[in-house]
């Protein structure tokens, strides 16, 4: 027990002032003197240290801890701090009483105490038993100056200051423990120094000896500066940091060899990675995993890439060629390591030396690549995409197109001709045909272009730019908007246009149907938008703006511009004719007449168009069923581009408080509130279009006022599933209506989700209205896995920074991550507890979804 009398002036004041990393000014993270109520500090045994509240010099209550069992032998009293976030050195200020100043205690009194620490990723549960053996010793601490009787009389405390580096700390935080073995100690404060290097996490790989600092074994120095804490608690000399060498990872401050089955190819602070599929490492400290027998990795492939067995014979044949196209086929002899998803064909003009290339995908081992230049040699590579990833590219194959025949026009598109094999794959064939009908735009085309200039030049040359993800060029960026029209729209001689009847009225004039009769070409049914007489120059520009936008697009699900008439009156915009007109009114007149699959087909078409637009960097801003046109085959196409800026023409658009005109019911909250239009806000609108389609053209939010719609959305209200709507589709709508734009799926996700539904129509059988019990029992049933790649999944949970950790560790599919544990997450180098939690909870929800999907026949 605490001795009475003059000992009671031995005040134990334990005060912790911790500071934020990277700041010059001290920020108090925890000040034990000012904490109201109980401190989260523990004593073992409970009667060893006493927590007492004292008054300081300014009469403020301060928390103190006291111990002075100098009369009793064999003292072992522990005081453990609360959990302290990882920082660098701890500065201890304390005073010790000189044993000589205390009578009768010569055999038991001590003049030192021991400082220990214990690392942990997070605060330990309060039920955790205190075990001294869990704690690592920092040092035994002794006083330079004692606290004497003389001092007592004056109440002058001569404080000792000691600095100790606690660590290496590799976890997120730690506890300090003070072991008293029978002394009278006055710890005045435990203090953190002002600035901490942002690289302090790696200081643990440093060893000190005689003032020299070096990296621990199997670590090497990096030159990123780190500040080092001097004895007075100030930050001194910049030092390099140490990182574990190749084949080694950091564990508890040491660089330990990667275990067999793991590897690390680069020095750094990352963890050893699991060997990629079909490769292994048998020894410790592997820097690469070697491919298993019969599996290979291309020389240029990174070591993180899975090994695959070659899926091609090595021969790609040219079946035939015209001046604009080449038909190729190849064989697949060996059974690939995993199921084949599709083939990727990459090609470029030999003379271009891969400055730009195109690629296209096909599900069968044949392709017809069109849109090529006559008499030109092209280089082709083919690789197979399996469920385990890509195989290596085949060697180069060079084939030439035929010489030019001036009579035949180039259609200028890449068309993937699928020669689906018959047999037991009827569903695949049906799907393939379906996909061909509702069409994805231009196959998959990707390219690096040397310059924007080059792109323009090619465009001018009358070809579809030979590859390249084209980006949308805003006509408003042209000094003279007529230039944009000239660049992106063909001028049509009005004598080729035959107007038949008026089909509607736009803001600028009538809309007619008719025929386009270009010489040497078949008649094309067209819709003709006219600009009525008496227009101003600005109105003419606004009118033609739509043409210069539309003219940049080439996609089956975007209304095609045939051309413009600007050199004579009336000024006209000529587009392809869509027999069934606007989607909303079309559906209203056909209430209940389509199968769910037909409706999903319409939605898929819109998603294809929107994916194309968002890939081009174009934000529509007015996506709504009224702005989708539908043809006689039920192909839906996105239209109405002119109004993306002004929205004057849209009767649904209302003025907002900031003066903008916005179609409130279709628009994402961030776009309404502060004009933040993006592809993500288009996704919100797409969700509303889904709802319109599934409800056969019902008005979103019925007769609620715009103001009520805004308030309801803000309060979390979302449109319920339309009658007869599959639960999976309503889930997708809800996903599109996430308040946070970043949490919504992107259009590629939407499209891939719809494709999965189409492949597995059983997933459309559970209707939302029938599924009340399902939604009730799984109130927090998570969103469906729309994210087809690990990258997309990480983006969706805002953990994009860990893409490389997953990929480097060989996790490439959602399936593969669904079994990951917290330990796995840690092992791939995700150290922050909050991030681990977020990832794990997303994986858990993913598991639930997978389970749910399995129950409902949805294929992942
Ligand atoms: N109304 C407006 N544009 C149209 C089009 N392209 N086809 C049919 N009707 C339309």
Automatic annotation (TrEMBL):
It is a single-pass type I membrane protein. GO terms for molecular function: ATP binding; transmembrane-ephrin receptor activity. Its main location: membrane. Its EC number is 2.7.10.1. SUPFAM superfamilies: Fibronectin type III, Galactose-binding domain-like, Growth factor receptor domain, Protein kinase-like (PK-like), SAM/Pointed domain. It catalyses: L-tyrosyl-[protein] + ATP = O-phospho-L-tyrosyl-[protein] + ADP + H(+). Residues 1-19 form the signal peptide. GO terms for cellular component: dendrite; plasma membrane. Keywords: ATP-binding, Cell membrane, Kinase, Membrane, Nucleotide-binding, Phosphoprotein, Receptor, Repeat, Signal, Transferase, Transmembrane, Transmembrane helix, Tyrosine-protein kinase. Pfam families: EphA2_TM (PF14575), Ephrin_CRD (PF25599), Ephrin_lbd (PF01404), fn3 (PF00041), PK_Tyr_Ser-Thr (PF07714), SAM_1 (PF00536). Residues 497-758 form the Protein kinase domain. Residues 26-202 form the Eph LBD domain. Residues 309-404 form the Fibronectin type-III domain. ATP binds at residue 529. It is found in: Cell membrane. The chain crosses the membrane at residues 414-439. This is receptor protein-tyrosine kinase. It comes from Mugilogobius chulae.
